[in-house]
Design brief:
The chain has 2 domains: 92 residues, Orthogonal Bundle (Arc Repressor Mutant, subunit A); 55 residues, Dna Ligase, domain 1 (2-Layer Sandwich). 40% of the residues lie in helices and 17% in strands. The chain is built from 5 helices and 6 strands, in the order ααβααββββαβ.
Length: 149
């Protein structure tokens, strides 16, 4: 992270606390409900799937869209596009190392999680070669599942 010089250490902690408080304040009813649903599902869910799992009348689809957008901006959920024009959302694991990759069937959109991951070394090589820092990656594979073949 780049630190600008006009920020001395004095700002850092109160600022961090303020951000956390703000974050907590922003995680209200519907957002909390959405996070709870995502917590129970290992696979990314669409807006509609999340909506159908919420208690009836809890909130409308528009609220879910807005909440997800906000949670994504807060880096609490990760948005995926599996190429079918439908956004799917997944809870961001506390440790970024807890991320995984997806194998998606282009026929029925079944999602399989792949535990194999790029070695960190490769990520670092790619970063260094291009002068990038703090590189992370998302990897989606597409194909036809046994059912759809």
């Amino acid at each position: 992270m780049k630190h600008s010089h006009h920020h001395d250490k004095q700002v850092a902690l109160p600022e961090l606390t303020r951000q956390l408080r703000q974050k907590a304040r922003k995680v209200t009813g519907p957002r909390q409900a959405i996070l709870n649903i995502l917590r129970q599902h290992p696979h990314p869910l669409t807006n509609k799937e999340i909506f159908s799992r919420l208690p009836k009348g809890e909130c409308d689809l528009a609220t879910i869209y807005r909440s997800l957008h906000l949670l994504e901006n807060m880096a609490m959920v990760q948005r995926y596009d599996f190429g079918d024009g439908v956004a799917r959302y997944e809870l961001v694991a506390a440790g970024a190392a807890g991320h995984h990759h997806h194998l998606i069937c282009t026929g029925c959109a079944e999602v399989v999680e792949i535990e194999d991951c790029f070695p960190h070394k490769l990520e670092k090589q790619i970063a260094d070669r291009n002068g990038f820092k703090a590189v992370t990656h998302k990897l989606e594979f597409f194909g036809l599942c046994p059912e759809c073949q």
